[in-house]
Amino acid sequence: REPPELRPAIPIIGHMIGMFRYTVFYYATLRGSSNVPIFTIVLPGSKMYIISSPPLITAIQKLTKAVSFATMAAKASGRVAGCSDAALEIINNNVDLSKGPESDSFVHSFFKAIVPPLRPGSSLDAMNRIMIENISGSTNALAKRTPTRINLAKWLRREITLATTNAVYGPENPYADEENEQAFWTYEQHIMLFMIGILPSITARKGLQARAKLADAFVQYFTKEAQAKASALAQMRYSCGREWGFSVEDIARFEPGNAIALLSNTFPTAYWMLYYIFSNPKVLEDCRQEIESATKINQGNGTATHTIDVSAIKASCPILASTLQEVLRYRSVGMSVREVLEDTLLDGQYLLKKGGTVVIPSNVLHTDPAHWGADVDDFNHRRFLTKTSNPVAFRAFGGGNTLCPGRHFASTEVMALVCMFIARFEMEPVGGWPSPVVTDVKIWAQIIEPHMDLEVDIRARDLGAGKHVWEFGLTDSELQFALAAEDK
Ligand code: HEM
User: Fold this and answer.
1) Is 33 exposed, middle or buried (0-12, 13-18, 19+ CB in 10 A)?
2) 334: closest CA among 257, 238, 441?
3) What is the Cβ-side half-sphere exposure of residue 155, based on CA atoms within 13 angstroms?
4) Distance 333 CA to ligand 1 centre (A)
5) pLDDT at 236
6) For residue 406, how far is its CA from the centre of ligand 1 (angstroms)?
């Protein structure tokens, strides 16, 4: 009664070769030939159940106890953070809910506690305002340099890192120090080696040094109680850790892991938004028109003050919102992964055996013509203006009890940056627009990283004579994009 097994052409090692060669796209290749809603692939020593149908996703998301994300997160986070044995004991205690309810497990309690500070409301507002002020400062600084040539990915990564981490960690933000930012990206490159855990002192030496540097920076941060001046999110992360008995050192060791969620996907999303908008004149024209209609202009003393309210953008720029969703659909490589803790019957018909791994690869759903139509392979910035067949087929932010709580913050940040860019600048790549190539997909990545940096020429738009100043704000914090089935 297990889901049908798809066997590889080369017995035993065929799937491993496929995964190595096609990374996360391998599952879509397999699905293509079979078109079954769920299938099994057997690897030496393990079994994976790949789900490709929205009704089965909805069904699996209800089985939160028997099919667990928390147990996998617990195993990975200890290795990636390099925490103490005492911390491991707290993390692992009752993570499979065998000894009590979710409130008796640190991992489950923590995942619940992280949601309120990121929900629309005063805490998220405070973070958004700092973030918008920073992004606005970055575009002002860039405008002063125009005409100029920049490496787009490098520029975006730095500015988004600063805006995001200033919003979360406040005035003593450790990532404001460029050396710590560099250490984070070095640490991020080594995560897979930490997870494998074979002789990391040799295989991941630089990663270990970077991790130690970041942990030191956060010990200093918490020792100064700098979190007291930071966001509700930073305060919650610290206080929750202390309440559960973690040492300050261990909390500091976990903090770089938070930046994976915070930074690793926002920067590539912003990059791909600018790439798809500026590389296609029609997309640029549509998005620019919407932004211009939502911008208020006050003339006075030879100065035009352009005011963009990010809330107005959310309310009145449906093509821009559709473009964001299409970018996320098109460039999403995330996988929701769950461990089967007991033999479980899914949807009354498929037996999932204890010890198996359930995988929901977003691109399997995002590339299925049954959900998106015959033009599924094309980038269509207007696609989300009309209703898609099933909102559950859009998996860029996951779903169920691991639905990304940061989606409102991340989407506001990307939109703020993209609007400021479109409204103020013209951008052209040196040597044309390269076609995106996928060279490497990190297993924790949700959005593909650009495979190379892009040198671009930036000049200020010609907006007529006189002085032009720009103001950006956020008035209605309750207004959010509907980015997941749960938001609709
Ligand atoms: C465009 C940017 C982002 C994308 C595409 C994204 C995507 C995702 C996805 C697909 C998941 C679900 C993973 C799974 O099912 O296993 C997830 C989980 C998560 N995300 Fe995001 N994310 C983004 C930004 C952020 C930001 C800015 C934050 C923090 C402020 C954040 C915090 C989290 C957390 C804490 C989880 C785990 C939730 C849980 O397991 O309960 N994300 N994200």
Assistant:
1) exposed
2) 441
3) 19
4) 13
5) 97
6) 6
The answer to whether the annotation marks 317 as part of a ligand binding site is no
Q: Is residue 335 within 8 Å of 443, Cβ to Cβ?
A: yes
Could you report the per-residue pLDDT of 359-377, keeping only the tens digit for each?
Answer: 999 999 999 999 999 999 9
User: Does domain 14-93+106-487 correspond to CATH entry 1.10.630.10?
Assistant: yes
Residue type for 466, please? G
Which atom of ligand 1 has the smallest separation from the CA of 401?
Answer: 41
The partner residues of 345 in beta bridges, in order of sequence, read: 351
Residues 454 and 435: beta-carbon distance below 8 Å: no
Strands 335-340 and 344-346: unpaired
What DSSP string describes 401-459?
GG--TTHHHHHHHHHHHHHHHHHHEEEEETT-PPPP------TT-SBPPPSS--EEEEE
| pLDDT, tens digit (0-9, with 9 covering 90-100), for 288-343 | 999 999 999 999 988 999 999 988 888 889 999 999 999 999 999 999 999 999 99
The answer to whether 111 and 102 have CB atoms below 8 angstroms apart is no
Q: Whose CA is nearest to atom 40 of ligand 1?
A: 402
Task: Pull the structure tokens for residue 36.
Answer: 């079954």
Helical packing angle, 178-189 and 248-263, nearest 10°: 80
ipTM: 0.96
Ligand 1 centroid to Cα of residue 336, in Å, is: 11
Identify the segments of the chain with pLDDT beneath 50.
none
Is residue 103 classed as helix, strand or coil in its secondary structure?
Answer: helix
Kindly report the protein residue whose alpha carbon is nearest to atom 12 of ligand 1: 398
Phi/psi-derived region of residue 199, left when phi > 0, alpha when psi is between -120 and 50, beta in every other case: left
Residues 122, 111: Cα–Cα separation, whole Å = 20
Structure tokens at 191: 């995560």
Ligand 1 pocket residues where CB is under 6 Å: 69, 111, 114, 118, 261-262, 265-266, 269, 334, 336, 396-398, 402, 404-406, 409-410, 446-447
CA-CA distance, 428 to 422, in Å (whole number)?
12
**Strand-strand pairing, 467-473 and 303-309:** parallel
Distance in Å, CA 266 to ligand 1 centroid: 10
Question: What count of other Cβ atoms lies within 10 Å of the Cβ of residue 35?
Answer: 11
Give counts: helices (H), strands (E), the chain.
21, 13
For ligand 1, atom 28, which residue shows the shortest CA distance?
Answer: 406
**Atom 34 in ligand 1: residue holding the nearest Cα:** 404
| CB burial string 368-387: b at 16+ within 10 A, e below | beebbeeebeebbbebbeee
Q: How far is the CA of 404 from the centre of ligand 1 (A)?
A: 4
Q: Report the pLDDT value the prediction gives residue 409, as an integer from 0 to 100.
A: 95
